[in-house]
Amino acid sequence: xxxxxxxxxxxxxxxxxxxxxxxxxxxxxxxxxxxxxxxxxxxxxxxxxxxxxxxxxxxxxxxxxxxxxxxxxxxxxxxxxxxxxxxxxxxxxxxxxxxxxxxxxxxxxxxxxxxxxxxxxxxxxxxxxxxxxxxxxxxxxxxxxxxxxxxxxxxxxxxxxxxxxxxxxxxxxxxxxxxxxxxxxxxxxxxxxxxxxxxxxxxxxxxxxxxxxxxxxxxxxxxxxxxxxxxxxxxxxxxxxxxxxxxxxxxxxxxxxxxxxxxxxxxxxxxxxxxxxxxxxxxxxxxxxxxxxxxxxxxxxxxxxxxxxxxxxxxxxxxxxxxxxxxxxxxxxxxxxxxxxxxxxxxxxxxxxxxxxxxxxxxxxxxxxxxxxxxxxxxxxxxxxxxxxxxxxxxxxxxxxxxxxxxxxxxxxxxxxxxxxxxxxxxxxxxxxxxxxxxxxxxxxxxxxxxxxxxxxxxxxxxxxxxxxxxxxxxxxxxxxxxxxxxxxxxxxxxxxxxxxxxxxxxxxxxxxxxxxxxxxxxxxxxxxxxxxxxxxxxxxxxxxxxxxxxxxxxxxxxxxxxxxxxxxxxxxxxxxxxxxxxxxxxxxxxxxxxxxxxxxxxxxxxxxxxxxxxxxxxxxxxxxxxxxxxxxxxxxxxxxxxxxxxxxxxxxxxxxxxxxxxxxxxxxxxxxxxxxxxxxxxxxxxxxxxxxxxxxxxxxxxxxxxxxxxxxxxxxxxxxxxxxxxxxxxxxxxxxxxxx
Length: 741
What we know:
The chain is 48% helix and 16% strand.
């Protein structure tokens, strides 16, 4: 293919663009099936190049490098085809340039136009009760019912944006990183793109927990040589033994764990980096024909366990029961040299391609097979998506329930296997079998024993559902279920009941109006709902139907024609007014002792409070969040609530930075554990009170089996003082762990 015509003035930029374009051509070449494919690919590149010719990214690079990078990711890292590459090249043209969807349809056909349309962001402004990001997520998820390539290209787009996030301002970094953690990484995980999911999580951590990210990255780099030596020592005898099996073709290597997964282990196990032993996994990839894959994987497992003793609790057979995203492999953890636990993953080339390239590879191998776990999951997602009654944020929550959940395997009375999220109940299982069975479920038999709807299921349970035609869902059911499908169907059924009640209430009310000779109107009904302190006319009708409101209390004296004489201002209108003016409302909560500068668009100093969910102190990486009723709240960027706030309400995030001050003390909490030995607690309190002159508010300890655990609440000036204290305490013999809550 000859070189395209390039328009940038800078010769160096022309060379750079051409280099990226040629790389794209090299990786997509095996998927070019005709001359027409080549022509359309070049046409898409030239259209995108021309449309973005006057645009630059925050880095200063020509904008065209972004669609080129996204297109390369779709083919090189996701294994998608030519249509996806063309759409990736065009994905920002309709949104950001003068190019119209009709032009794309005319030049590239309906399929490309449909995908590009799905990729075009929502541009209109939504009311403040909702969230523009959430609406974008909803549109993105809707593409599951249409063309999966929309989501895959969107994930590729997000991956490249995360790789170049250093050029964005801090508040944008936090917003984009939180959106990524909130939805894009879980989507990549569920669609089987493990490498992309891990990179998205690591890049999110790089911007939300920068210090910890750098610490782990540096320690991984420092221990690289020692790790390689250990991996070679572990692999050598296994490699020699498998090589003797003439019918087994294989490759074996060590793979480092992601920074995010290492950090999760440190947090969950309460240990330092040096105490995390499974920093890597050993992977054995077999070149086996499809009919021999399972037998060959178990053969290698047998060989490995001849050398190293396995942990019986850590065997995972995802070959017999693949994960919902199609992932297949044997995982085991064995005791390696030097008394270290080592994770080993065994899979075939086909399984490995599905693990690395997820969805695309799954469908490549699907021909001639029955429906797989990924197909089942997609069907469940489509059921949730088609529910017309859910509001946007409820919809997103229901959808996310199905993304990152661990799975359990449950059997029907006839032995059919069902996959459900861990923590699922008998009621979840009923809805998974069929919506009608769920709605009429009154109980279940688990392993032939009668249990209630709320009974939590365990791996391998056999479940029989008991139904009754008289059964109806109620609000409590929402507390019994964890699966998105069950929650969505219950909410939908409850709303249907509300509609029927409202229709009944409306009839009763109209008869009363007729008796009073009052003309009904929407304004009158809204006034009546407000008078009875109800949120909506629908709730008012429902209260009339259930006799919570007796229509006999409505008398002729209350009305003037079709108007209510005594009207209370609807609380909803007051709330709406607050929402419309929330930026002005936050200035009413002055915290004079604060020493944090908060910069908005006008660089003015605003008023704020510290969020109790994470208790930030000076030196923490923080952001400001504008609330409706409580002014600006300051959260740590790694606060448990930060991801949801920044991903759903990014437009309310305010940039923040600390000023230098040492006069004010901030309350914080340390979690400690150690050996219950004489003098340990005395040493701890001496360092805190005597040596460092830090005031303690409280200390709470509990001792069991020679180990004490507890919390110390104290006042510090900033993170620097807290870090010095923690390092001093770590030097105490007998203290096992110490961390900030």
